[in-house]
What does this fold into?
Amino acid sequence: MSTTGQSGDGSAPGSAGDVPADLPGHDPRHDPRHDPRHDPGGNPGWGRDRDDGSGDRGEGRDGGLGARSEQVLAGVVREHASRLAAALISLLGDFSAAEDLVQDAVETALRRWPVEGIPQRPQAWLYTVARRRGLDVLRRESNYRAKLAELRWPEAAPTDDRLRLIFTCCHPALAPEAQIALTLRVVCGLSTAQIAAAFVVPEPTVAQRITRAKKKIGQAGIPYRIPADEELPGRLRSVLAVVYLLFNEGYLSSTPEHAQARDLVDDAEWLAALLAQLAPAEPEVAGLLALIRLHRARGAARFDERGRLVLLADQDRTRWDRQAIEQAAALLTRAARAHRRPGPYQVQAAIAACHAEAASFEETDWAQILVLYDMLTYLAPSPVTRMHRAVALRHVHGAEAALAELQELEHDLARYGLWHATRAELLRELGRADEARACDEQALALTVNPAQQALLSERLRWG
Amino acid sequence: MKYVLMFVETEQFARQLEEMGELELRQAYEAVGQWFTEHADKITHHAHLAPVHTATTMRLDGAEPVITDGPFVEGKEVVSGFAEVEVADLDEALKIARSWPACPIVEIRPLS
It folds into this structure.
């Protein structure tokens, strides 16, 4: 299981003195980095070379980043870029101008840190670059210049502004793909090139989405603030939807060959953990975080040594991270008990926990899973959820009942490969081999990518 | 900031209106009147448009202006009125729009 990206952000052992007290996740309850299993272990070389005392402009003097260091670098940038963005937006009152400066600082860091080493105080380094650049490019805006001259690190910010930042980036008045791109760039500190690579879209497309979104924020008057209480539940839903999409995208595209690319699952987990820390009263946030961690906990068993996907039923469960599963399940239980406000993410996490806690595929508690799917179809009705429920139904009430349930979904899912593949399995179980073959052919015709086909059937078995 | 809320009618909504009895219709109008009263301090201007069959469109991109009967896009959804509001930001405009009691679609656009 990959634990990188959460570990090397200055809170690694021996560097605690560099870290402002208000780093995210300083509460150990929410912080995977305080978990010894997440200890970076092989601390990258440059991590030890951070005592050059160059302070505000401190630049480490270590070259040669190791293989994992790219992700560690990404983690440091992620940890600090959003704070810088929040501070600059507050200062300038101009989302777009602030974001440009952050992106500039991030790109400079991504260029220089691999060569020069990560500075002793990355936050201060980024502030300095952003201020210098701002004073330079915003020369004509005398108002901004005066404000930027005041920019000091650390900003005296009584509250964590990053929640405001996230709500602005995930405003429902922005197109969903713009919300994702903006969140990755502004909150997670990804460069446009990294986003383009992660989503396999051309870089100009991403750049254009971001430019348009920033224009809309300015021109349409999308506010930079946490929504009022009565709007909060709806707005939080859009934020969680962005994190969930990121997680799905990262999870589905993650393969051993793809290991070099930016791991969006890292970003999704980091965002969910940040949200859990900033909005502790929202059980759905904890639910989503638990869901992500439960899936990650079995990551090591998802691929065999040749890099092929392994279906849930066939996975080597000794390779699952039992401790991570227990902790995620405990997180979910705590949130559910404390608030008694079930929601789709908590229920999905509970389903994932049922699978993760089963000692073997045969011991899976399908009756419990079916009850949870009943809840999920009530809380968030969708044909796809009903289809997954039918799979649980098969294990509880048999293939005939499941097939009847699937039949009702024909109108909605006839263009969906997985629907045909599921029918095929049920028909085969019922000895209707010819019909099963026909369904499999349909499924294949509707699913372009063979790897995705395998993946879909794996997800199917998850319930 | 100033925004215009454009009220958009659908065919289904128009049908519902037609099928309403006198009492229902009066209640519907009262609800709209109440909405305007409630937000009077934010509404700087508003108008209800005559039905779409009264619309005339002129196209000026040819050699000569071309005048045609009907709205500029033939669609099932037509703008039936608008209100201009002065508020702090988009969220406040959205909040006002949320309680709009009549036609089912509202487009919110800032004045530049």
About this structure: The domain at 2-110 of chain B is CATH 3.30.70.1060 (Alpha-Beta Plaits). The longest strand of chain B covers residues 77-86. Chain B touches chain A at residues 1, 3, 88-91, 93-95, 109-110, 112 (CB under 8 Å).
